[in-house]
Structures are given as structure tokens and as C-alpha cells.
Amino acid sequence: MRTSRPRSLVGIAMAAAAALALSACGSSADEDTSAGASADEGAPETLVLASIPSEDSTSLQQEFALVQQVIEDETGIPVEFQNATDYAAVIEAQRAGKVHIGHYGPFSYATAKDSGVPVTPLGVFADSADEEPGYQSYAIVPAGSDIRSLEDFRGRTVCFVDPTSTSGYLYPSAGLLEAGIDPATDVTPVFAGGHDASALAVKSGQCDAGFAFDTMVTETLVDKGDLAEGDLDVIWESEMIAASPSAVLTTLPQDLIDQLTDIFATKLNRPALVEAGYCASEEECELPESTEYGYIPVTDDFYDGVRKVCEVTRSPSCAS
After folding, report:
1. Alpha carbon of 286 to those of 176, 268, 317: distances in Å?
2. Could you tell me the CA-to-CA distances from 169 to 59, 166, 234 in Å, in that order?
3. For residue range 190-234, what is the model confidence (pLDDT) as tens digits?
4. pTM of the predicted model, to two decimals?
């Protein structure tokens, strides 16, 4: 975890892109597997799928294993999974043509799209086929802390997730500003790199307070045994945030984009996975983010609410 004041987004993006490129993508710049190939050059030999950080990269890869398998079976193209160093790494890797499908946070997706990365959403995880998917950011403190509101954050060490994290930075920044707290100058910000890392840093006392998305605090870390109920107090909740998308490079051949769009819309949900024989029952289907249903389609304008928060906060991280 970085405990110094945050670097600029540009610096983080460059470092993250370098980190992903070094571990990443399993191919050299000279190979045809690069995502940077134009549609005229045909489909890549390997599809690269990247996701944002997790405390346990092996667990994250396992969560995406079924998604990876279905894409491989349907397209006939091998899929390589990459656990990215941070949100900016996914943005810059897709910008550089090193990742074909990136799993983003809402803010990092909007940042990528609005800065010229050629991507479009394939879908978001939802707990039912007809819901409008979303989640909340929680402000958390150790149980019994004297910090009881965002106003009490002044002068404290505060864990954020990442400069391009929607629920780990952008919406918390909006909440802090509304409470009269400048997230850049009135607190000592720490970028933990992941929602799990942020919550656990608060639990351990490395940060006086912090932010993470709702179910990371109330379900995921509790189910894993990393948090016990009552370890953390939730002292603020954001408004509802548009759910995190998976986005595909639009430089891929259109027929492949159309096929991937159909896969995410019709095949990567629990009922379809059971029907296709991937799972014996819906309960046994393991999908990322513990989604109860699977992917549902969304369009780019689903993220206009995130863009509006950028306008309100004028956060430096909103400037690509």
C-alpha cells in the first residue's frame, strides 16, 4: 500500500500501464494477439480479459474462470486473464491495445471512454434480469471510533481505493466536499489499491477511516473471514452508483464484437449457464462479485450520472 500523498493520475496511469505490460498480456508487441489490431486485420489469436485489483489475485481469476470458459467455447478463441495493477492499468492497457475486454469501475470506464479509449460496454453484473443494477460507497471507521461523520475526517489519514475508483474515490470526494472537507488538502489520502485493501487498512489502524463499496464491507470480507461483523462502523452511504461494466475494444472486428455482445447478454447468466451445462445448479455457478444473476446489457449513457458527479466535484481525476 502507498502511504504517501497520491501521485497525479497521469503518473499512476503510466506506471500502471508499464506494470501491466510487463506482467501482461502474455504476448510481445510484435505478436498478432495484440488488441491494437484494427478490425481489418481480423480477430486476435488470443483474447485478453483484465480486471481490477483484488486482495487475492488467484481468487479473482477463479471468479472470472466461468466467464473466460464461455467466451472461449463460443468464439473458439483462447482467453487469457490478467489481474491488473489498478484501474488506470486497465485504461492504459486498452488504450495501448493490450487488453480486449476490461472489467472497470463506473468512473474508470467513463474516464477511459471520454479520454478516447475505443471501448463500449458489454454488460454489467446484476442480481436479477430486470433490475437497474447499482451499488453504494460506504465510509467506514474502526468500531468505536470517535469519527462519526464525514465532517470528522478533517486532519485524519483516510484510505481511498484508487484515483479512478467510482465508489472508492469519486463519490467519496463528492461526499467530503459536501461536508466541507477537501479530499486533497484536509485529509492525508492513502490509495490502498483495492476495496478490500482499503477496508482492511481501516480495520488494522493503518487508516483512521476509509471508503469501499457496500458489499465488500458487509459480505465479501465477512464471508472470507477477513472481517468479523462489528469490526467496522459504516458512518456514511453514497447515493446509488451505476454498476461496474465490462467493456470491449471497438477496434476488434465487428462480427466478433457482435458475438461478444450476444455472449454477455444471453449466455453469461446463471439460468443460461445451467441450461448449457456449465453448472449443475444456479447456486453452483461461480461468477464475479457474487452476482446472483449474471450480466445484463447497458449502454454508454448509463454512466452519465458518474459524469455529472465529475462536473460537480471538478475532481482532477476526472481530467484524462
Report:
1. 36, 11, 33
2. 24, 6, 16
3. 999 999 999 999 999 999 999 999 999 999 999 999 999 999 999
4. 0.71
Per CATH, the number for 134-241 is: 3.40.190.10
**Residue type for 241, please?**
I
The Cα–Cα gap between 190 and 311 comes to 24
Same fold, 9-129+243-318 and 134-241: yes
CATH class of 9-129+243-318: alpha beta
**Domain range summary for the chain, segments of one domain joined by +:** 9-129+243-318, 134-241
Strand partners, 288: none
DSSP label at residue 216: I
Joined together, the cell numbers standing for residue 304 give 452519465
Which residues on neighbouring strands pair with residue 220, listed in sequence order?
Answer: none
Residue type, 121: P
Q: CA-CA distance, 142 to 134, in Å (whole number)?
A: 26
What phi, psi does 27 have (nearest 5°)? -150, 155
320 residues of the chain, pLDDT tens digit each: 322 223 233 333 333 333 333 333 333 333 333 444 444 468 999 999 999 765 444 578 888 999 999 999 999 999 999 988 888 889 999 999 999 999 998 888 999 999 999 999 999 999 999 988 899 999 999 999 999 999 999 999 999 998 878 899 999 999 999 999 999 999 999 999 999 999 999 999 999 999 999 999 999 999 999 999 999 999 999 999 999 999 999 999 999 999 999 999 999 999 999 999 999 999 999 998 878 999 999 999 999 989 988 888 887 777 75
Looking at this protein, which amino acid is placed at residue 145? S
Sequence-distant contacts of 34-37: CB under 8 A, at least 24 apart:
34/97, 34/98, 35/94, 35/97, 35/98, 35/99, 35/100, 35/249, 35/251, 35/252, 36/96, 36/97, 36/98, 36/251, 37/97, 37/251
Number of residues that make up the chain: 320
Residues 6+ apart with CB under 8 A from 207: 157, 158, 159, 190, 192, 198, 201
